[in-house]
Amino acid sequence: MNYLYHLYMEFLSRYSIPDVIGNITFYIIPFCIIALALLVVVLILVLAERKLLGWFTQRKGPNRVGFWGLLQTLADAFKLLIKENITPDKADRFLFNLAPVLVFVPVMTVLGIIPYSAEFTFADSSTNVILYLILAAFPVLGIFLAGWASNNKYSLIGALRGIAQVLSYELPVSFVILSVIVLASTMNLTGITLAQYSRLGVAGWFFIPCFIGFLIMFICILAELNRCPFDLPEAESELICGYNTEYSGMRFALFYLSEYAMLFANAVFITILFFGGYLSPFGTYLSYLILGDSNAANICVYFEQAFWLFFKASFIIFVIIWIRALLPRLASFDLLKFSWAFLLPVSILNLFGIIIYKYIMGGV
Amino acid sequence: MTMKKTLKLNLGPQHPSTHGVLRLILELDGEKIVSCEPDVGYLHRGMEKMAENMTYIQYLPTADRIDYLAGCFYSELLCRTVEKAKGVELSQRVKTIRVILLELNRIASHLLWIGAFLMDLGAVSPFFYAMREREMILRYFEKLTGQRMMYNYFVFGGVRKDIDYIEDIENIIKILPEKIKDYEKIITDNPIFLKRTKGKGILEQDVAFNYAVTGVNLRASGIEYDIRTTDYLYEGFKFKPVVLEGKDSWARYKARILELKESIKIIEQGLNILTYGEKLEQNLINPINLKLPEGEYYNEIEAPRGLASVYIKSTGDDKPYRLKWRTGSYYSVNLLRKLLVGEYLNDAIAISGSLDIILPEVDK
């Protein structure tokens, strides 16, 4: 952030605004940006999912509100906002209200630790990856509370499934991430991104040595997001809506929002771990190619980097939506068996393989 | 203090995957079902009692409404009973028209089942694909009879008017086989689908006999019992009853797919007879003051959901003294009591889906 910080301070001092104000606002602005960006991302994602699912299933998708259905999600969000928040009679009021917040907050935080482009990570730390792991597993606590506090049997079963699922899929994820850490020799997300840099662009990305790891990670992400074919905690045809059956209005919107924000965050995370994060797939950035080595290019590069990150992430999101259109749901027992009996051993083997690979390549 | 070890779950009557308003009282141990008690009657319209206060022609439209997915079969049953009681012979053209419409109706019903079954398993797209093809058939029915689901097309001694728009049927049977291939591509060998259906919900032959299960469910257990082979309407039509040995959900799915193909063959043969260019000859029975001679009448037909039959006791009046329907789904619902015990909740949904239960048909 140093470069941006200096730019910002320079900008302020030009209008003779004291440094104190600059120091305070510099850290507030990013979080406002996150909050806004999150809303925009979710609005786009929800529309994209509905449009894509529509096309996959021979329908048009939403096309009434706004041009080409662009405002559909806004209309839905507005509807949720003005709806009544109903708390069931025998629900645990405090926990019931707490649960959506517990789901929502970590998701917001996750978005803060992602390096969107060089110099543009809101909360950079040397162990970003571990922080990510913790935050990504955190919402399941909220899910469990929601299921427990609703005093609804469907919610309870959904919550139990959610816990079992996340617990068993968290382990393979950890081993895969470990192998990426071995490859990059760092636990910082920006560091992992930069470790994938090569003049040939795609050739340096980690999905090439760690392809099995990528597949495992992708499957586990589906499970952690409760996405099809692992959507057991909210299996519509079995549990009505799973853990959020009893939620309405804004509280439901929070669940919904965090679900899609988490989808986005996870897609971005996979991109960073395996597809070079914000790196250009051509090795050099297009901005430099077009604008030459100028000051304008230096600014443009930030946007280009963010573009590459979003571009790669949206491709992963597309695949996730595609899978939803295609596959039926797994049975709960098979789901757990699949993780413990297949994914976990393979991910451990993958870790050893990567360590040997790293040793041979002489990176230790 | 003693802990209650099991959880009582009220699945339905309003639940996304009960295909109407079926209520299952489940006793769960974890997610394992200890006992299952189907509770039917939420859609009871008193159709059998209604008949006692209606003349036969007044009751005819009601017969269509017993099973809204396969209305033709029940009006055919009522017509057949009256025709046989009056000793009226049908011309070959009328028989052929009836067979074609019955089989089209069977295809529509099976297509919806395929969609709904996959929906139960959590796959979204097949539902829309199946609905698309079903829509072609419903459009045709609408063109011909003016109704999409309750056709009221068969009348005592013939059909309401001559068949028309034959090119539409030709189009349907030309397109359908390709579409069925498409379904098989995304469903039949899908590993998740196989896992959810192979070896699940095994219906042993003696159980099937004891519970009086008929139709595809019985034939998928390896018993050749298709009364179309002895039905006088189907005389001269060449087809083979679909018999599979699997006994599980997958066999029931496959049997329906194969039955679609058989139905297409029957329609093809029917069209060949029709294009022979015969004039429509009907021996219509005057419905005014229509009285059945004193006695008992019983007729049966192979409906999409198993053997359907009607029993009428007449005292020589213009209204039936007693009228009873036998519908296939009723026995399948009863079967849940046996099949679901010991299964996990999400398998239970898949199994009950595979039996093709339609609640208006159960409750009458």
Would you tell me the structural class of the helices and strands of chain A? mainly alpha
Sheet with the most strands, sense and barrel status of chain B? 3 strands, antiparallel
- Name given to the CATH architecture of chain B: Orthogonal Bundle
Major β-sheet profile of chain A = none
CATH superfamily of chain B, by name, is Cytochrome-c3 Hydrogenase, chain B
In whole angstroms, how far apart are the ends of chain B?
A: 46 Å
Question: What pattern of helices and strands is seen along the backbone of chain B?
Answer: EEEHHHHHEEHHHHHEEEHHH
Helical fraction of chain A equals 55-70%
Structure description:
The complex is a heterodimer of chains A (364) and B (364). Chain A is 70% helix and 0% strand. Chain A has 364 residues and is mostly helical. Chain A has 2 domains: 79 residues, no CATH class; 279 residues, no CATH class. In chain A, helix 2 packs parallel to helix 13, helix 7 crosses helix 8 and helix 11 packs across helix 13. Chain B has a single domain, classed as Orthogonal Bundle (Cytochrome-c3 Hydrogenase, chain B), CATH 1.10.645. Chain B is 47% helix and 13% strand. Chain B is built from 13 helices and 8 strands. In chain B, a hairpin with a 2-residue loop joins strand 4 and strand 5. Chain B is globular, with a radius of gyration of 21 Å. The chains are: A mainly alpha (364), B alpha+beta (364). At the A-B interface, helix 7, helix 10, helix 13 and helix 14 of A face helix 4, helix 5, helix 7 and helix 12 of B.
Give keywords.
heterodimer, A: 364 residues, 14 helices, globular, B: 364 residues, alpha+beta, Cytochrome-c3 Hydrogenase, chain B, 3-stranded antiparallel β-sheet, 13 helices, 47% helix
List the helices and strands and how they pair.
The complex is a heterodimer of chains A (364) and B (364).
Chain A: H1 2-14, H2 19-56, H3 72-82, H4 93-112, H5 128-137, H6 139-149, H7 153-184, H8 189-195, H9 211-224, H10 236-239, H11 249-274, H12 286-291, H13 295-326, H14 332-361
Chain B: E1 7-11, E2 23-29, E3 32-39, H1 47-51, H2 56-64, H3 71-86, H4 92-121, H5 125-145, E4 154-155, E5 158-159, H6 166-186, H7 191-197, H8 205-210, H9 216-219, H10 249-274, E6 295-303, E7 306-314, E8 322-326, H11 328-339, H12 345-354, H13 359-363
Antiparallel strand pairs in B: 1-2, 2-3, 4-5, 6-7, 7-8
